[in-house]
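BACKBONE STRUCTURE TOKENS:
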Amino acid sequence: MPWKQASPDTEQIRFIQRWQVGGVTILELCRQFGISPKTGYKRIQRFKAWGLEGMGDRSRAPHRHPNMTAPEVAERLIAEKKAHPTWGPKKLVAWLSEREQEVSWPAPSTAGNILVKEGLVRQRKRRRHVAPWSEPFAAANAPNDVWGIDFKGWFRTGDSIRIDPLTVQDAFSRFLLVCQGLSHPKGSQVRPILERAFREHGLPETIRTDNGPPFASVGLGSLTRLSVWWIKLGIIPERIEPGHPEQNGRLERFHRTLKADTATPPQPTPRRQQRVFDSFRKTYNQERPHEALGQKPPAHQYRSSSRAYPKKVYSPEYELDVTVRKVRTNGEIKWKGEKIYLSEALIREPVGLTQQDDRYWTIRYGPLSIGLLDDHAKCILHTPTEVLPMSPV
């Protein structure tokens, strides 16, 4: 329908005005304006029905949208987004669908468009990521196979008191076992919190940490008094490589959510901050959908461990062919008339020594090989910690 002039609307009006004058056939008039007879007749019919206002190309958009989200549904989405500002459309739709099944909720993409129009979604800049690091760690195939533990970066409450949030999360179910604000990241403060978690949820097989205190040290086997306690409970301490927080990536990602939901901004006092932590933990475990769990909350996947926290904790025992030495109060052992320093973390604990050859002895603590004793030089060689396949623990 190539109208001759640059403005089709103006040409269509001229076409009608020339048709009203008469004296020419429709076919000849259409030829003069460079249009088909079909287009010419259509414009005349529109003029008869709507006058000059009917000229121009009309919108092809449908007058009704049978799949359009109902206003009350959109308002419900907007209200829940304001109540949970860090939740995306997938979580919101999954959460609402679970609780209000009689409502026809839109697809997450449609929900996202509604929230964007309301200015409730901030477009994030896409980041390039390196390839994932291969993780030579214990597999988390069931609840309590692996717990991740870490301190989220400290901050100060409104009254300038320092808070170090300690978090413990089950790697399989993402269930948040602990979210506790401490005044210092010290083992003496961590242990009673973990004792309470062990009594409530049982014992995990492995606890994964970074390489900082109070979870690890630069001493023999990287052991601390906290990790020695774990080994006595039958828990394997597992450490990520220095400079690779992605090896504990699930907990690292969780900390961004924790900060956004509980500490932006911080609460006025530590007590009020802990109340927010407690409320967040309940919502995170019981209500908040998790995409990796099929948009179900972690509580749907988590079950307490069958390994109960024991009434009494015993030191490791060794096979009959293992030479045993008890670490003295200064961190040393007596070996063939010589005093050899091991670690203060092992004070009063038995270590096992297994002869490799005529010079080297493997030093064990429970199921872990933590170093070598050089029998000629009477010194300790630091070697990578290894979990032995045959363990009495």
In short: The first helix runs from residue 8 to 21. The domain at 8-54 is CATH 1.10.10 (Arc Repressor Mutant, subunit A). Confidence is low (pLDDT under 50) at residues 127-136.
